[in-house]
């Protein structure tokens, strides 16, 4: 069995959407997916996109993906790598694909001089938590993640969604 990781391209937009829908189904949030192949192609691969994606293949068949971007730590005065999503098809789990994706991302972080490699996991996803613990990752329990989304974001900004900033 051969596992390989490659950078994704706009031609992978429909495949990435398929993986996103599989991930959302696993996370019991399939009704929350608003993305389309077209919006993925333009937002992930269009000019100025801050994000990047990887495709994981096992014996030439796509079995998973990861989407990541670089952020910045003021305390370290270094950029960091943030993993937005990682998904491996259930039939390919336990065979090293997820670990290879994470190792590939860790290698990118080291190559880019990042001070951190971070991600979030749902508190009920015990298989993922056990996996992350096994590779030496540590939960950041002192931080609580907050989010403004949709109408609450627009209301707080004091403008309609999509309105230009003066």
Write structural notes for this entry.
This protein has 166 residues and is α+β, with helices and mostly antiparallel strands. The protein is 33% helix and 25% strand. The protein has 5 helices and 5 strands, in the order E-H-H-E-E-E-H-E-H-H. The protein has helices at 13-26, 37-45, 97-111, 126-134, 150-157, and strands at 3-7, 51-58, 61-73, 78-88, 116-119. A 5-stranded mixed sheet has the order 1-2-3-4-5, with helices on both faces. A hairpin with a 4-residue loop joins strand 3 (61-73) and strand 4. The mean pLDDT is 94.
Compute the separation of the termini in Å: 55 Å
The tally of strands reads 5
Largest sheet: 5 strands, mixed
Helix content: 25-40%
Structural class: alpha+beta
* H-E order: EHHEEEHEHH
Mean pLDDT value? 94
User: What fraction of residues sit in β-strands?
Assistant: 15-25%
Q: Strand order, main sheet: write it out.
A: 1-2-3-4-5
**Rg from alpha-carbon coordinates:** 17 Å
Coarse morphology: globular
Number of helices: 5
Secondary structure topology:
Blueprint: E1 3-7, H1 13-26, H2 37-45, E2 51-58, E3 61-73, E4 78-88, H3 97-111, E5 116-119, H4 126-134, H5 150-157
Parallel strand pairs: 4-5
Antiparallel strand pairs: 1-2, 2-3, 3-4
Helix pairs in contact: 1-2
